[in-house]
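Appendix B. Raw example, untouched.
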Amino acid sequence: MSMSLLGIVLGIAFFVVTQAQTSGFETFFIRTILGTNGAIHISDRFQDLTGMVSKAEKDGSVKFVFNSREDARYVEGVESPDLLREALEEFPQPTGISEILEGSAVIDSGSRKHSTEVHGIRIEDHILASNLENQIIRGKVSDFAVDESACLVGSRVADRLRLQLGDRVMVRSGAESRQFRIVGVFETGVSQIDKKRIFLHHSATKTLFGRGLGRTIFQLSIKKPEGAVELAHQMQLTLGHRVISWQEREKVWLEVFRALRASSAITVSSILLLSGLGIFNVFAIMVIEKTRDIAILRSMGFTPSEVSAVFLWQGGIVLSAGIVLGCLTGFLATYGISKIPMRIRGIFSTDSFVVNWDGTHYLWAILIASLFVSIASWIPARRAARIEPAKIIRETI
C-alpha cells in the first residue's frame, strides 16, 4: 500500500510538472510571436468573385466561410494604406495598427555583406502593435525615433557583420543605396527573424525602394488574441484583402506543442495507472485473506454496502493522502525547475525553463488519479460485498 501511495504521489507530481513545462513553453512561444509579428497580418488585395460561401449569425458574426482561391486574382501589397487604416480604425478590437513597408535588401558593413528583410515602420505605431521596445538588447528606441537615418538590426545580423552601436552601414536595394547608422540591436529569439530582419524609418524605406521594390502590409495587435481567427475572417470579407491570424500563421508549431502536451499526459498517466493496479492487487489479496472475517461481519448484521464501504474508505484515504502530497510535490518541483538555467534560441528566446502556473493541471491530475484509484478500489469492494456468510462459515467448520 505504501508503494501504491508513492506511485500516486509521483504520478500526480510528474503530471503537473510535465504539463507546466509544455504549456509554459507554448504560452511563451505564443507571447513571442504576438510580440514580434502581431496577432493579425493584412497583405495582398484580392478579387474573389466566384466560389465564396459564407454563413452569418443574426448578430453579424461569421460562423462559416469557404473561399475557393482558384480564380482569385491577387494584387501584391496594400495599394491604398491610408484608406485601409481608416477602415481598420472602425473595428473596436485592434489595440495597435502598424503600417509596414517591407522588401529585400543587402546590408554592407564595409568588410562583409548580408541579405536582409527590411521593414520600414513608424516607430510610434509599431510599438503599439508589437513588443519591439522590450526586445531591444542594445541601444534605445528613443534614439531610433529621432533619427531618420537610424537603423535597428537583429542580433544575429549584428554578430555576423560585427556591428556595434554607432557604426554606419550601406543598405542597397536595386539601383538605390543609402547609408544608415546602427542605433539598436534587437533579439526576438526567433532565429529566422534575428538573422534577417532590420528596421528602418518608413519614409527612408520608401526612398530606398522607390517604385515596385517593396510592398505595404499591416500588422495588428488586438484585445483578445484568442479571437483572431474570427476577426480575420470578418476583416477579410469586409476589406477585400488577405487577412491571416496568428493561429493560421503558426499552425504547425501550435500543433507540435499540442502533440507534446498530449503525449506527456498519456505517458505520465501510466504511472497513475500502475498505482491503481497496485491498489487493486492489495485489496484483492485482502479480500481473499479476510474472507472469514468479512463473513463474520455479515453474520453480525453488516450489510453488503457497509462491507464494501470498508474497502472504499481505505482507497479514499490513500487517494486523499496521495493527492495532497502529490500536489505539494508537483508545486515544489515546478518551482525548482523554473529556476534551472537553460539558454534557448530558435523559436523563442529564454535563459531558463519556462513553466505555466495553471490550476487545471492539478485538477486533471486529481481527476485521473481519482478515476484509477476508484476503479481499483470498487472492484475488490464489490467482490467483498457479494460474500455469503453462511457458505463461508460452513466451509471453515
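End of appendix B.
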